[in-house]
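Lab notebook: predicted structure, single chain.

Context: the supervisor wants predicted structures on file for every construct in the current expression panel, including those that have not yet been purified. This is the next one on the list. No modifications to the sequence; it matches the entry in the shared construct table.
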Amino acid sequence: MDINELLQGVNCTCGQQHKCDIKHVAIYKGAISSLANVAEEYDDILLVADENTYRVAGEKTIAALAGKHLKKVIFPGSTILIPNEEAIRSVNDQLDGMDFIVGIGSGVIQDLCKYVSHVSGIPYCIVATAPSMDGYASTGAAMILDGMKVTISAKVPNAIIADTEVLKDAPMEMIQAGYGDIVGKYSALNDWRLSQIVNNEYFCQEIYDLTFKMVYKTLDLADGLVRRDEKSVQVLMEALVVVGIAMSFAGSSRPASGSEHHLSHYFEITCILEKREYFAHGIDVAFSAIATAALREKMLC
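Prediction complete. Output recorded below exactly as produced.
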């Protein structure tokens, strides 16, 4: 699938014109070099990363931004970064004079940059370091505000840049999380269809089919992902980005998030409040998809 062609939009049989405002997606070996073109019109750029993501992709990112005025916000890599008011403040404190934000990371860095970009009006792009979740291309920023997990409607990034040479070496837990996030679509799509039947909610068969196509493409990747096969990792990342585009097309998270996400958010928030470690988001989603499937089966009995 040509993702950049998909970004041009779809005149859909549901009667809507689906669109996504992302300008560029690059998922291939050496993709970070394309950042030079993405950031060409900007001079003052804020880099946002943690110590781990900066270590694996910071040098390549800086090389692609040669000649630009750069500032950095680098969060500690030894503790879990929470996208809360404190993290937002750390980024906002360095925003003065900046005209572009480049996030280096995956889920939390992505959501944090998306939120700050939305509030400040400063555009951003993401240099992905792990194929760990489907929010790269979505309009939702998953934040922890006032101690609760909330999804803020925000703008998509200008660009998503994913170097497969970086992605394949991501922590295995992050790769598992990306796989789990896609597997969770069995639950999300079930809930979307049920809501159409029960609540007469808007439903689009083409978006539904597009999302399921990504699920089917992902299922056979498991062995390759365990081996860190670069092509398998590339296909997983493409599936995650396409599902994010599907959410943008739908104007909501319906194609990708249902009761399994509500349950996973409960696990995450409970552990944060109790100061306990918790699984990566997509792993929680996969477990929760099994639990919600069991609930649906119980309702049918």
